[in-house]
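Course assignment 3, question 2. Fill in each field.
Student: A.L.
Task: Predict the tertiary structure for the chain below.
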Amino acid sequence: MNATTLVVPEFHALLTLLILVGVIFLFVRGKPPLDLVSWGLLVTLIVTFQIFPLEDPVTGANLLDAPRLFAGFSNPAMITVVGLLIMGEGVSRTGVLSVVARWIQAISAGSWRRAMGLSLVVVAIGSAFLNNTPIVVIFIPILLSVSEEMKVSPSRLMMPLSFASILGGTCTLIGTSTNILIADYMVKTGLPPLGMFTFSALGIVLLVVGLLYLIFIAPSLLEDRRLPGGGDPSGNDRKRFTSQLQIQPSSPLIGRKMSELLKEEILQKVEIFRVVRGELVDFRPPFDEVVLKEGDTLLLSAGVKALKKLEWESQSTLAPYIPGSRIQEKTEQGNTTLAELVIPSGSNLVGQDLSQARFRNRFQVIVIGLCRRGRAVEGRITDETLQTGDLLLIEGLGSNIDALTRNPDVLLYWGVHESVIKAPKAPIAGAILGGMVLLAATGVTGMLTLATVGAFLMLATRCLTLRQAYQAISPQIVLLLVATLALGDAMQATGAATWLANTFVIATMGQQPWLVMSLFGLLVMVLTNVISNNATAVLMAPVAYSMAQTLGVNPMPFLMAVLFGANAAFASPIGYKTNLLVMSVGAYRFGDFLKAGLILNIVTWLLVSALIPYFWPF
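Answer field:
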């Protein structure tokens, strides 16, 4: 193809581009669920190239047959990612970072900025070597405690926490799965393999500049949202959960007037929206003449402490009635505990109501509250369809809640995880991780070997169990990676990547390679904020390589633009899981991420554009 002439893509390339457009549309839309889109993408590719085979001109074999498209399941990068996920789970389960978190909390009294700064540094360093989701989980209650003690809004602390973890992941090869996928693509194209610290110099520059922005500038850009509630240092009582209180036969509230109860201490920290009686009677404020009866349901909102206090003192039950279940089931569980779940982007639960989600049957827990962007919803929680970023307050046995830790449909960020930490194993887990990093830095062997051996040692030394290891391997991530790897192969084999690269070069005709690279990196950053960072990396890497070939320059600058651009998911809450983790606890709106994150995206883009040619000349 002539690089100076825009032509219609060839038939197979056109088919692949149409599939690419369709899958990006579904990723952005968020429906259907991410894993279903991934399966659909694989099936579409297999059927398409079975009906319209891409034949090898020499042998006549189909270059994109089913075995080739399913090869992602045995891809070295995939196996490496799985091994690192298991190692990260072992480190998380042994509480290596919890000790550091408590130390920060102890020495930071009197200065919330110092506490935040130290926390962000530790989070960034940890994220350079571990999965950043459990690291953010550990530090959320630490910074919430700082927020409470030093009278600063959590909205000024939570977003910087998430962004620091993302920046830390850009500092080493194992910082994110995105880095490993780019490294694997480079090996397949015959380029020198990336080492553990090949791009660390640029990553550290971005990290230092980013931390200065997050500590000294970003907090002032975020609105001071002080949510009503108590002072629980875990932050559980800061958020307003909508809940439903079912009046039981033994409740002292029976026969009492609502107008009187609203003046008493029992309801002082509770907001009552409605009193529902049966299917037909529905009282709304003011409740002047309403006398409570057995079976009445109070629709209300409050913090966690206030909700549980009300449940105890009213001798009633916090649990919505769902047809087909018994309200009394909650009280039969015995010694239960509370936890909070976030609904992540791509979850199968998005778009379902609580009856469809079947938490009781599937997970053996009961949803007793719903919080949306730090606020209550004024209505029955059973009538609400779940949305990305929703926060659910659940109650159940500790073992059942712990089983949700690695369920791809939810993110557990407050609950029983602290009680299952195996602290005596922390030195062993730390030694395994340190040994892997040291061997990787010296280049003794490849990351595939180190990750699989490290995962085995975590199991052999009982830093975690086999069940916990299996839970660490997210089927959703595996499916997404396999499907996007297959699409990436199709783009390369059919020439779709070359066509996209040539089109971009034509659009920037006559410009210097560094400017073309810079604009391409900007495109990658936009994509990563609306679809998965891993998907962005896999899909854009072939385009970057083809673009360098078209321009006749070193492909490394373009591939590094993809690596750093795909990791820069700052301007959207759906761009990265950790953004969703902090969304509710910080009471953020979508615009807050755009306001504070867009500046960090622009700074990152400018630094990457200026420094990539210095580290990797064209």
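Instructor remarks: Residues 227-236, 323-333, 416-420 have pLDDT under 50 and may be disordered. Strands lie at 241-246, 271-277, 281-283, 297-302, 317-318, 337-342, 365-371, 391-396, 411-414.
Grade: pending
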